[in-house]
User: Which sequence fits this backbone?
């Protein structure tokens, strides 16, 4: 018989998580793992064929259930260790990769561009970031979130690096014909005024773009857009809110800042006080050094 | 029983469907349900599916003319639409297969989801149930956050010194365990009561003494994020459910239109009694 050429699969470093069986299922003597999968190219979207592959893997090699993780991952639990190679192969072919676990850059969190609140698309730049930095080895876990508006469904305030789109509001002609005051009511910061049928945006504006959606008559228009970058947030056993590092940055600058933050973090992270093996999260490094000292290149 | 969930799309004649699993689980999907979602996305949508941070999935660009048909198919598969707006948003529970979590929260999530399906609230309401202190589901920035705790104790069973409970990658995440010549020593000040060690200890030297649930109130994300405050510790799932029901009753009584629990706290300067 001819020897068949085999494709040697290199085991991914992250994404295969030692699993336990659910407490109500007894399978004696079988080792199981949980597979945390991320979809490529967009990590927040799965295509229909990718979903079918997940269905197949969950049915054939797992227990027929899929856990939806809060970072856009689909987790296939209880994959039997002996089937792992075959399961991984199926996933690879469909453009699904294990990842987003351990001390690495976790799955990039972006909100969908079709959301009506979004003021600037983030999916493409999210894809670029995940392509460049995704699953990179880090001292501790690093979470990066992109949000298309200040509402921040992807929790940019509570992630290590949060990037929030912002949009300037331009009043077209300054005359509000209808006087419906929808913009005024929609503003969470009371920064829109309607006086004598004239709309005015005051200094309190935080560029969330809610009034743009509220205005049905086209008086308010979207001006320039950009991103604000928040660094050093976290959620989990302690909560930290990210500190604003910069405003009105564009796509390229975002990539640059993320690169700089990750490099500095790798260089400057120390062991956690009292711990022999756990290293600091980004927020702890910044608390220890201060933002300026942290962002300085050595 | 309507929770909404049919969101306006960016293209005319098309809508975005937000789906949540409703049976048999509310925080995970079955393989069959994934197949149904894939079919719908391909036949009626644009072939892509977005996984949201609250354990729901969104299918964009679904033809609104075919909506009846789609909803019928979803119903048959144990999927429902929603929730959006001023409802209890999908209660999320962390993975019951996670090594760290010692108390599976999926049943609790299902009970809460069933209980408040279609109930209109004064504002948006978010409940997150976490099986351990690390709270991947973000319990501390949810309106009502639950973190399951496990009190551990040492038994007479002899420690086999496998040191799984102290080594990477599975060992204690907060370095609360040391193995000495006499056996296992636990630093109770460091212990965050996640119960992880009870999951991996093969000889059963470390075991669960008691389970409890910590309730956090008034956290939120969004435009003005707030950290929730610790409210109470409950000893059983039933008493936890009762307490959450009580908090929701209080919230529906006192909250003004559009207020979330954090806003009520700010206005009143205190929590429920």
Assistant:
């Amino acid at each position: 018989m001819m020897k068949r050429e085999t494709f040697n699969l290199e085991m991914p470093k992250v994404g295969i998580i030692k699993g336990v069986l659910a407490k109500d299922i007894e399978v004696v003597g079988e080792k199981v793992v949980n597979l945390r999968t991320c979809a490529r190219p967009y990590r927040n979207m799965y295509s229909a064929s990718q979903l079918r592959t997940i269905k197949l893997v969950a049915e054939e090699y797992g227990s027929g259930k899929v856990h939806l993780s809060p970072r856009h991952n689909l987790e296939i639990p209880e994959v039997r260790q002996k089937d792992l190679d075959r399961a991984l192969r199926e996933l690879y072919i469909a453009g699904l990769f294990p990842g987003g676990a351990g001390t690495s850059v976790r799955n990039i969190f972006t909100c969908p561009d079709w959301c009506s609140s979004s003021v600037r698309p983030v999916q493409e730049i999210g894809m670029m970031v995940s392509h460049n930095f995704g699953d990179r080895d880090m001292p501790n876990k690093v979470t990066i979130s992109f949000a298309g508006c200040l509402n921040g469904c992807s929790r940019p305030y509570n992630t290590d690096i949060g990037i929030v789109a912002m949009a300037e509001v331009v009043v077209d002609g300054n005359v509000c014909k209808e006087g419906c005051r929808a913009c005024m009511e929609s503003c969470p910061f009371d920064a829109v005024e309607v006086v004598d049928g004239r709309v005015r945006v005051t200094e309190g504006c935080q560029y969330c773009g809610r009034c743009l959606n509220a205005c049905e008559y086209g008086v308010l228009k979207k001006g320039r857009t950009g991103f604000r970058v928040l660094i050093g947030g976290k959620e989990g056993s302690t909560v930290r809110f990210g500190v604003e590092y910069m405003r009105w940055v564009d796509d390229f600058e975002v990539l640059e800042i993320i690169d700089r933050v990750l490099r500095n973090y790798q260089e400057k992270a120390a062991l956690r006080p009292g711990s022999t093996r756990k290293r600091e999260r980004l927020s702890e490094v910044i608390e220890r050094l201060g933002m300026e000292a942290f962002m300085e290149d050595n | 029983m309507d929770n909404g969930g049919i969101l306006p799309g960016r293209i005319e004649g098309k809508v975005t469907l937000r789906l949540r699993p409703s049976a048999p689980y509310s925080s995970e999907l079955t393989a069959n349900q994934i197949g149904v979602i894939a079919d719908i996305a391909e036949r009626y949508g644009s072939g892509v599916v977005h996984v949201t941070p609250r354990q729901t999935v969104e299918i964009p660009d679904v033809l609104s003319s075919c909506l009846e048909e789609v909803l019928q198919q979803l119903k048959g598969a144990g999927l429902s639409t929603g929730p959006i707006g001023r409802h209890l948003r999908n209660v999320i529970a962390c993975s019951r297969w996670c090594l760290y979590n010692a108390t599976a929260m999926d049943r609790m999530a299902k009970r809460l989801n069933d209980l408040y399906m279609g109930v209109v609230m004064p504002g948006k309401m978010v409940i997150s149930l976490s099986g351990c202190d690390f709270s991947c589901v973000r319990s501390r920035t949810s309106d009502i956050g639950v973190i399951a705790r496990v009190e551990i104790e040492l038994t007479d069973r002899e420690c086999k010194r496998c040191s799984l409970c102290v080594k990477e990658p599975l060992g204690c995440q907060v370095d609360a365990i040391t193995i000495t010549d006499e056996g296992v020593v636990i630093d109770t000040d460091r212990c965050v009561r996640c119960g992880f060690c009870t999951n991996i200890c093969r000889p059963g030297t470390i075991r669960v003494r008691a389970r409890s649930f910590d309730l956090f109130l008034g956290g939120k994300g969004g435009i003005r994020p707030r950290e929730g405050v610790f409210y109470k510790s409950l000893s059983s799932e039933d008493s936890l459910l009762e307490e959450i029901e009580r908090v929701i009753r209080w919230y529906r009584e006192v909250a003004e239109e559009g207020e979330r629990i954090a806003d009520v706290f700010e206005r009143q300067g205190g929590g429920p009694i």
In short: Chain B touches chain A through 64 residues (CB under 8 Å). The longest strand of chain B covers residues 206-217. Chain B has three domains: 6-81, 92-149+212-268, 152-209. Helices of chain B lie at 31-43, 67-76, 106-115, 196-200, 237-254, 261-268.
